Amino acid sequence: MPHVTFLHESGDTETYEAPLGDSVMDCALDNGVSGLVGQCGGGCTCATCHVYVSRGWRRWLTPPDADEQELLTYVPERREESRLACRIALTHDLDGLVVRIPD
C-alpha cells in the first residue's frame, strides 16, 4: 500500500498507508489528520481538502481537470503546487508522497 506523509505548517509530520486507488483525502480523513476537512466527501465541490504538492511529485499526478481548476480559483492560499486531495488517487508511483497542509 502507498504511504502518504502529511506535513503541517508547524513542521510536524504524519505518515499513513492507504489502499491503492484511495484518494489522499481519504487517507487523511481515515487517519484523523488535522487541517484537512474534506467537507464534501470527495465530490470536488468545496476545496476544503486543499494541499500543496512539491514539484518532484507533481509529475506523477494526473493534471487537474476543469472542476478542480475552477475550485482552486477560490482558494486564497493558492500556489502553483496547489491541488485538491480528493483528486489525487494513490498509485504505486505515489508511494512516499509528501503533501503540505496549508495553515
* Count of beta strands: 5
What's the N-to-C terminus distance?
28 Å
| Structural classification | alpha+beta
> Which geometry do the CA atoms define?
globular
Describe what this molecule looks like in 3D.
- There is one protein chain.
- The chain has 103 residues and is an alpha+beta fold.
- The protein has a single domain (3-100), classed as Ubiquitin-like (UB roll).
- The protein is 17% helix and 20% strand.
- It has three helices and five strands.
- It has a five-stranded mixed β-sheet.
- Strand 1 and strand 2 (13-17) form a beta hairpin.
- The longest helix has 7 residues, at 24-30.
- It is globular.
- The N and C termini lie far apart (28 Å).
- The mean pLDDT is 95.
Q: Helices, strands, pairings?
A:
Blueprint: E1 3-7, E2 13-17, H1 24-30, E3 50-53, H2 55-58, H3 66-72, E4 82-84, E5 97-100
Parallel strand pairs: 1-5
Antiparallel strand pairs: 1-2, 3-4, 3-5
Put the structure in a nutshell.
This protein has three helices and five strands, in the order ββαβααββ.
What key attributes describe this structure?
103 residues; alpha+beta; Ubiquitin-like (UB roll); five-stranded mixed β-sheet; 5 strands; 20% strand; globular
